[in-house]
Design brief:
By secondary structure, this protein is α+β, with helices and mostly antiparallel strands. The chain has one domain (23-159): Electron Transport, Fmn-binding Protein, Chain A (Pnp Oxidase, Chain A, Roll). The chain has helices at residues 10-20, 69-77, 90-95, 106-109; strands spanning 27-33, 36-42, 45-50, 53-59, 61-63, 66-67, 79-83, 114-115, 124-125, 130-139, 147-158, 174-177, 180-183. The strands form 4 sheets. It has a 7-stranded antiparallel β-sheet with strand order 2-1-7-10-11-4-3. Strands 5-6 form a two-stranded antiparallel sheet. A two-stranded antiparallel sheet has the order 8-9. Strand 10 and strand 11 (147-158) form a beta hairpin. It starts with 9 loop residues before the first helix and ends with a strand. The mean pLDDT is 96. The structure holds flavin mononucleotide (FMN). Flavin mononucleotide binds at residues 26, 38, 40-44, 58-60, 62, 68-70, 94, 97, 99, 176.
């Protein structure tokens, strides 16, 4: 069957795309503003290029015409720390999808341990096996309620035993398959 996207409503289109483009990595994005550490998951997220080392993440609105805290913080402060989730911290990541007031911090509310590894970037989630320290690069103009933001990776944390001498990385990320979560396994 052919699905004609012009004839599918927004919610069904979201469901169809999310169930089809699988698995999607999850960016657990930590940002900071006015001393408040914000952390939230995003799966409309993908690498774009390795030179420049760029990623794109599409972030929606919190309420009509009000950006989600992550987007507001990135546009204002130009920094984002992208952590990856694994089966041990997945429940914490899910909690971070709960909308909170801008002045509330998910890491404080849900008692999530973070650590400041680089002075000029937001802290990373301590239990993340790998983390990308990014700067704002550009915004893609799209009509609608979602803002795709391009971020440039400037530095990366990787647990020492997850990188070998040939620069091969071995992480146990969890990604998103439609509404479900799935461990990324090698086959
Ligand atoms: C696994 C997962 C993936 C998500 N992906 C996105 C996404 O790609 N874009 C988006 O706008 N919201 C996404 N959300 C919802 C946000 O995490 C949620 O709106 C969150 O409250 C935003 O927080 P903030 O206002 O602190 O940025 C996702 C939620 C989950 C659980």
């Amino acid at each position: 069957m052919i699905l004609n996207y012009d004839e599918v409503n927004d919610l069904d289109r979201y469901k169809i795309m999310s169930d089809t483009v699988v698995p999607r990595p999850i960016a657990w994005i930590v940002t900071e503003d006015e001393g408040v550490i914000n952390a939230a998951p995003f799966s409309y997220f993908i690498p774009l290029s390795s030179n420049p080392a760029t990623l794109i993440v599409a972030i929606g609105e919190k309420t009509p015409n009000v950006p989600k805290d992550t987007l507001a913080n990135i546009l204002k402060n130009k920094k984002a720390t992208i952590c990856f989730t694994n089966k041990d911290n997945l429940e914490q990541l899910k909690l971070c999808a709960t909308p909170l007031k801008k002045e509330q911090s998910e890491v404080v509310e849900y008692n999530i341990q973070t650590q400041k590894v680089l002075e000029d970037f937001p802290p990373m989630i301590s239990s993340s096996q790998s983390t990308l320290f990014c700067e704002y690069y550009d915004t893609v103009k799209l009509p609608g309620k979602t803002t795709p933001v391009i971020l440039e990776i400037k530095k990366q944390f990787i647990e020492d035993d997850r990188i070998d001498d040939k620069m091969h990385i071995n992480v146990e990320n969890v990604g998103r398959c439609g509404a479900f979560f799935s461990a990324m396994v090698k086959i």
